[in-house]
UniProtKB/TrEMBL annotation:
<dbReference type="InterPro" id="IPR011993">
    <property type="entry name" value="PH-like_dom_sf"/>
</dbReference>
<feature type="coiled-coil region">
    <location>
        <begin position="86"/>
        <end position="129"/>
    </location>
</feature>
<feature type="transmembrane region" description="Helical">
    <location>
        <begin position="227"/>
        <end position="247"/>
    </location>
</feature>
<dbReference type="InterPro" id="IPR037847">
    <property type="entry name" value="GRAMDC4"/>
</dbReference>
<feature type="transmembrane region" description="Helical">
    <location>
        <begin position="253"/>
        <end position="273"/>
    </location>
</feature>
<keyword id="KW-0472">Membrane</keyword>
<dbReference type="GO" id="GO:0006915">
    <property type="term" value="P:apoptotic process"/>
</dbReference>
<dbReference type="Pfam" id="PF02893">
    <property type="entry name" value="GRAM"/>
</dbReference>
<protein>
    <submittedName>
        <fullName>GRAM domain containing 4</fullName>
    </submittedName>
</protein>
<dbReference type="GO" id="GO:0034164">
    <property type="term" value="P:negative regulation of toll-like receptor 9 signaling pathway"/>
</dbReference>
<feature type="domain" description="GRAM">
    <location>
        <begin position="448"/>
        <end position="528"/>
    </location>
</feature>
<dbReference type="InterPro" id="IPR004182">
    <property type="entry name" value="GRAM"/>
</dbReference>
<feature type="region of interest" description="Disordered">
    <location>
        <begin position="130"/>
        <end position="162"/>
    </location>
</feature>
<keyword id="KW-1133">Transmembrane helix</keyword>
<keyword id="KW-0175">Coiled coil</keyword>
<keyword id="KW-0812">Transmembrane</keyword>
<dbReference type="InterPro" id="IPR037845">
    <property type="entry name" value="GRAMDC4_PH-GRAM"/>
</dbReference>
Amino acid sequence: MLKRLDKIRFRGQRTDVFLDLGDSPNTSDTECSEEILMKPRPSLEMKDTEELQDPAGPGTLTMPAAAIQDYQRAETDRLNDLKGHLEIALLEKHFLQEELRKLREETNIDTLKQELEKERSKRLDLEQKLNLEVLKMGPEDSPSQRPRETPPPPTANSTADKQKETMYSWLQAWLYNRFGAYIGDFRFQPEENTVEPEEPLSAKRLTENMRRLKRGAKPVINFKRNLFALSSWQSVYTSAFAFIIYMNAAWHGWAIPMFIFLAILRLSLNYLISRGWRIQWSIVPGVSEPVEPPKEDLTVSEKFQLVLDVAQKAQNLFGKMADVLEKIKNLFMWVHPELTQKLYVGLWVALICSCLIPYKLMGFMIGLYAGIKFFIIDFMFRSCPKLRDKYDTPHIIWTSLPTDPQLKGATLSRRIHPTVAHGSLGTALPCGISLEEQTGRAYNTKKGAFHEVFNLSGDERPLAVCENGWRCCLINRDRKSPTDYIRNGVLFVTENYLCFESSSCRSNSSKKNKVIKLIDITDIQKYKVLSVLPGSGMGISIATPSTQKPLVFGAMIHRDEAFDAIFTQYMKKVTMTTATNPET
């Protein structure tokens, strides 16, 4: 806008014929309604010429023609300047009108006018009511008709009362001005129950929240990792130095000041880091934060797999949190009376000790026990698992506490066992031997008893994790026939075998069943049948010496659970075989 105004203000000479003001840009309708033609006026020029003539005789000019031209040029320049000023004023008026219109739209003048009209109407109603009340009072009750009462002369008591009232009002006003704001904070008000709006389910939001949780928990995880490394004596010199300092502080009663000093030190380091200092510090030198890989553009399948991974992590995280909360609840609700009894006795002992032993001595004992437990006892238990399983009481109590799903499974098994015992067997089992250990016929498949279907010994039965088996399809890539290439069925794993039962309804379906010895497996890994589909696949590839191409068990919904069970049992058999026969 300023550039445009400068061009208008500092333009050169124009011709004698000027345009109409209505042709100027950005003018309103009111400005262009009157057409003002700026044209040269010959009468003015004639008058000026006559004035310049000599009064003695007409036709004789006293001034030269050059002066007349200069005069006319000056008048023309003056008119041009006037035209420029007029156009500038019109432009400024137009822009001011636009700003005024915007301000009117922003301030909502209409609503303010409506509120003003409402207030006026209320005021008129109040005036009418007041006038009606005055008329009802009558002339004798009106204050103008009443005789004025002369006030009594002031006395000493009245002046004293007035002084007391003024002092009391002054004191009250001073207290209110000084402490009124604080007193107002103690007013009881009803709580407002605000319901926060819930966000809709979104894969992007779920991924972002999981990343936020990971970033927020990173300092806690790093601190826990450093404490674990310190307790495990990964750096002998650092752990020994920390043990000596802590025990010295606990011996002299400086344990709490030492922890407060460490907290202040850490806050000081965080302040320097926030100011731009590059400080990488950890309790144990060998422990560092894991480096995250750089973010890259992901394809559609990779994004889908990322969402699945995030959902799986959220599921596992919520499962662990639920297990912890359920164990704590069951501990305090006497679900496992033997374990809760230990806690009950321990609390009574702690209560008696807190009443009899001085707090200074008690703090000293707790500090020494905490240092020995953290640096020595935990290290011994972690290095010797058998010793931990026998003598680590907190670990034994925590691992023995059941969760709600485990309680439901135990209740269901109690309901099933008596029914089976009173049914086909009818004989009492020896004490300490369960029904599954007595016979393998309790595990039946659709075709009959488990060991009969697969021609195995009677003691072979499915593991507890796969009592009902895993639904899948066997892909034998050595076969070319479509009926032999893919077979639907159920997969079982026992202590020594991997068994696949075909779901074919033919009489010779037992020939299509597959039995693989675990010790014969040469390779086992997760497999993705179709690489086009997103995710890591739903299959397991198993290679044996008797097959040219690995067997694939695909379309397994619980693929990860089956893989973990098969791989764990496979490693157990390999370890046992290696221990008994090292040459193999």
